[in-house]
Amino acid sequence: MTIALGCDHGGFDLKTIVIGHLKSKGFQIKDFGTYDANSCDYPDYAAAACDSVISGESDLGILICGTGVGISMAANKIDGIRCALLGDVFSAKATKQHNNANVMALGGRVVGAGLALEIVDAFLNTPFSNEARHQKRIDKISDLEKR
Ligand code: RB5
């Protein structure tokens, strides 16, 4: 499985930790930056990583900024992206089961590395439920992109 990653300066340290974790688990990585702690604009990195998910180059995406808020907002402007800002393991599992989220976001200044990696593992290891009631609701989210 290939994971696209993107962050701004507020997420750079945590992204480095997440990448090391994913590599140790055997995931393929596409790192769309940023590549240092210099100030930058999170929408640019959200777009690059999400484009990789939409094109099928990557299976899922992980985005990190200081809070996770801005980069998740940017991601959810992109047609076909369902990005969940996550701060707990229960929601990480539920957003895959119910929302079939294809991207997750973390706040590098909010969650510690230990919790962040548990959230990442839960997100990557939980499949979509494939239940019709959930697919119907996801289809309604997609319909909102046409408004
Ligand atoms: C950068 O200072 C910060 O605004 C950004 O990382 C993020 O938290 C925005 O939502």
Q: What's this entry about, in short?
A:
This protein is 47% helix and 16% strand. The chain is α/β, with parallel strands linked by helices and 147 residues long. D-ribose (RB5) binds next to helix 3.
Outline the secondary-structure elements.
Blueprint: E1 2-7, H1 12-24, E2 28-31, H2 42-55, E3 60-65, H3 69-75, E4 83-85, H4 89-97, E5 103-107, H5 113-125, H6 132-144
Parallel strand pairs: 1-2, 1-3, 3-5, 4-5
Helix pairs in contact: 1-5, 2-3, 4-5
The structure holds D-ribose (RB5).
Kindly name the structural category. alpha/beta
Number of helices: 6
Tell the overall outline: globular
Largest sheet data: 5 strands, parallel
> Averaged pLDDT, please?
98
Topology as H/E string? EHEHEHEHEHH
Q: Give unreliable regions as ranges.
A: none
Q: C-alpha Rg, in Å?
A: 14 Å
Describe the model:
The protein is an alpha/beta fold and 147 residues long. Helix content is 47%, strand content 16%. Strands 2-1-3-5-4 form a five-stranded parallel sheet, sandwiched between helices. β1, α1 and β2 form a beta-alpha-beta unit. α1 packs across α5, α2 crosses α3 and α4 packs parallel to α5. It is globular. D-ribose (RB5) binds next to α3.
